[in-house]
Design goal:
The protein is an alpha+beta fold and 314 residues long. The chain has two domains: 5-163, no CATH class; 182-312, Beta Barrel (Cyclophilin). Helix content is 14%, strand content 30%. The chain contains four helices and 22 strands. It has an eight-stranded mixed sheet with strand order 21-14-15-18-17-20-13-22. Strands 7-6-9-4-1-12-11 form a seven-stranded antiparallel sheet, with no helix packed on it. A hairpin with a 7-residue loop joins β14 and β15. The two termini are 34 Å apart.
């Protein structure tokens, strides 16, 4: 049994272990999963001197309240998150994008995200968790991943195999920016929709529904008319693809999406905008902007360069 561990006093909402996800399993119906906001995942690991593909704790809206037992360890939280650190009888208001050192008996209370959805808790060491298909990433819909594919729960222990020897305190000034328009490329069934439906898709606002989770983001707004067929033979899906079912309300497939689906696809969110898309809370307004494939590829290269620059400065 590990001498260094966190006890979960309160699990929070949809608190799971995540990493970079699973590769090359779509053909057997296993989605990629992994951290929803990849950039915040990477920054959190870098702040505590972890390998960039290390397991991390992801939470939505409200995070866990944890009590630590063991030797000194660093942790960091990324996202737009409100949290406190309790050391003996002193409670400290924490700051995101800054590492902290805690020791035996200290507590981390992640109270909530602020005007966003996902936050990340990186612990400075290696978590003692089982991998499945070389990944810890949990998909609670399919019970896939570490922790038997389930959310973290009250009273559970998060054990550490080891603690990083490098406990240097680090911080960065990264700001989670909002985006006015979500950029998309045309979907494979774009011509299934009427000219008016296409115009609505690009010109009107949609609202993020409360019926959104790691599997998909449901939108509400003006209906998008299908003039060919509201159902098609099931085809492969990718992260970010936008399906339109018979009710005319778009659904954006997210990290835990099913690998096939039979609703026509009007578009796909470009990879460079995905991190900011998933942080849009219910009630947020979305507008789509069409770009071509070449521009989408250029944007992704810029996103990758900017991410590496951010990590190199920590």
């Amino acid at each position: 049994m590990s001498d260094n561990y966190f006890e979960i006093i309160r699990p929070g909402i949809n608190t799971t272990f995540q990493d970079k996800g699973r590769d090359h399993l779509y053909h057997i119906g296993i989605p990629f999963s992994g951290a929803m906001d990849n950039r915040n995942y990477l920054i959190a690991n870098k702040l505590v001197n972890n390998n960039l593909d290390s397991a991390i704790i992801e939470f939505a809206y409200q995070g866990p309240h944890l009590k630590y037992t063991g030797g000194k360890i660093n942790f960091a939280i990324t996202g737009d998150v409100i949290f406190t650190i309790k050391k003996d009888d002193t409670e400290i208001e924490g700051k995101c994008y800054e590492s902290y050192q805690i020791e035996n008996g200290n507590e981390i209370n992640i109270i909530s995200t602020s005007k966003s959805v996902y936050g990340y808790l990186a612990l400075g060491g290696e978590l003692d968790i089982k991998l499945q298909w070389n990944s810890c990433s949990i998909n609670t819909k399919a019970n896939i991943g570490s922790n038997d594919g389930k959310k973290l729960d009250t009273g559970q222990r998060v054990n550490l195999k080891k603690i990083n020897s490098n406990k240097d305190i680090k911080k960065t000034s990264y700001i989670n920016t909002k985006i006015e328009n979500i950029r998309v490329i045309k979907g494979t069934n774009f011509d299934y929709f009427s000219e008016e439906g296409k115009k609505i898709f690009y010109e009107k606002e949609f609202i993020v529904s409360k019926l959104s989770d790691r599997m998909g983001m449901r939108l509400e707004g003006p209906k998008i008319e299908n003039i060919i067929n509201t159902n098609i033979k099931s085809e492969g899906l990718i992260k970010g693809v936008i399906q339109v079912p018979a009710d005319g309300n778009p659904i954006i497939m997210l990290s835990d999406h099913g690998t096939v689906g039979g609703y026509p696809k009007i578009g796909a969110v470009v990879s460079a905008d995905y991190d900011r898309l998933v942080q849009m809370a219910p009630g947020s307004k979305i507008k789509f902007k069409e770009i071509n494939l070449s521009d989408a590829e250029t944007l992704f290269k810029l996103y990758e360069m900017e991410t590496q620059n951010l990590l190199s400065q920590i």
